[in-house]
Design brief:
Blueprint: H1 5-19, H2 28-35, H3 39-51, E1 55-58, E2 64-67, H4 76-84, H5 91-94, H6 108-125, H7 129-135
Antiparallel strand pairs: 1-2
Helix pairs in contact: 1-2, 1-3, 1-4, 1-7
Length: about 140
């Protein structure tokens, strides 16, 4: 599993917002400059994160972006899913119709890959923005 560039940018942006203590909105130019995120990517990422209730966006002179919730409530799992969609190590785990063999509980690969996905998801669901910064 390789995370796409937009997901990496989203994580960097959210960690940056977390470090700012969510006291006031941070403008796009500051985020872009500090985290080396192209503005065109930043606005696309913000749209996805806002839709999922991770980021708040405010307009106007003092507008910008803030976390919509506390950092300990925002997990890597939901960030990845907000930007990339469902997390899976194989297509058949998302949709069994995408398997050219019948992906069922009787398929050895389906079972093993499902267990791997569950372990990855557990780790991602239990890693939040606050714990990431505490471990840095």
């Amino acid at each position: 599993m390789v995370l796409n560039q937009a997901t990496e940018y989203a994580m960097r942006m959210l960690l940056y917002l977390t470090k700012q203590n969510n006291k006031s909105p941070i403008d796009a130019a500051s985020i872009s400059e500090e985290e080396l995120i192209p503005k065109r990517f930043l606005f696309k990422i913000v749209r996805d994160l806002t839709r999922e209730g991770i980021v708040k966006s405010t307009r106007g002179k003092d507008g910008g972006f803030m976390l919509a919730r506390n950092p300990e409530e925002i997990t890597l799992y939901e960030i990845i899913e907000a930007v990339e969609g469902p997390i899976a190590v194989s297509k058949c785990l998302i949709d069994t119709n995408k398997c050219n063999k019948e992906a069922t509980a009787h398929c050895i690969l389906y079972k093993e890959l499902g267990e791997l996905r569950n372990e990855i998801n557990y780790k991602l669901q239990n890693t939040n923005l606050k714990t990431l910064l505490e471990g840095a």
